Amino acid sequence: ALPILTAGYLLFFDLTRPLALFFVSYFHCMNSQLFSIGMFSYTMLATSPLFCYPDWPRRLVMKCPTLLRRVLPPAAVPQRSQECVYAAADGALTTATDVQGRGKEERRPGLRQTLGALFTVLYILEQFFLPYSHFVTQGYNNWTNGLYGYSWDMMVHSRSHQHVKITYRDGLTEEIGRA
Fold first, then answer.
1. How far is 167 from 179, CA to CA, in rounded Å?
2. How far apart are CA 147 and CA 133, in angstroms?
3. CA dist., res. 148 & res. 171, Å (int)
4. How close are the terminal C-alpha atoms of the chain, in Å?
5. DSSP secondary structure, 8-76, as one string
6. Which string of b and e fits 53-70 if b means at least 16 CB within 10 Å?
7. Confidence (pLDDT) at 90
8. DSSP strand pairing (167-169 vs 176-178)
């Protein structure tokens, strides 16, 4: 229990991160097998690498054998794109520079970047709003447990063990009884 309680702290430090990733992975794999808690364990396993450095996939590919690297994505450092808007060191907005050093002109975000940012902000606001939207749907709106598949509360509402009958057999009289 102690490694799991301290896993959040251990994941933040480079020295303890491998040990914490092992314990966290073991914990979530065991929970997915022991409890009926839906996607929670798998989602937590998938998000565990968020505690690692951003270039961990590239470093992993570089450690693979040469034969295997041919079928894996390239491990080269990504190049700047002309479609993106970058902030320069002085705070000015610029585009990617080409080989001759051109492309230093100031560039404002276009329609594509503005719409992308707008939809992202709207999506985040929607995610904040949905858990508190009970005032929109009047009446008893807890008629389904569909939202519990991503929650630890699922362990409380698990119905796989509600109809378990415990019986016993007396070794001397061979009588069968129920508890």
1. 6
2. 13
3. 43
4. 32
5. HHHTTSTTTHHHHHHHHHHHHHHHHHHS--TTHHHHHHHHGGGGS-TTHHHHHHHHS-HHHHTTSPP-S
6. eeeeeeeeeeeeeeeeee
7. 65
8. antiparallel
Amino acid at the residue 87: A
Global pTM value? 0.52
CA distance 166 to 142: 32
39 token code pair: 């996607």
Identify whether the C-beta of residue 36 lies closer than 8 Å to the C-beta of residue 154: yes
Query: Rounded to whole angstroms, how far apart are CA atoms 156 and 35?
Result: 10
What are 72's two structure tokens? 């894996």
Profile the chain (179 residues) by mean pLDDT over runs of 10 residues.
Answer: 80 92 92 82 91 88 86 81 75 56 65 93 88 64 52 52 72 82
Cβ-contact 36, 20 below 8 angstroms: no
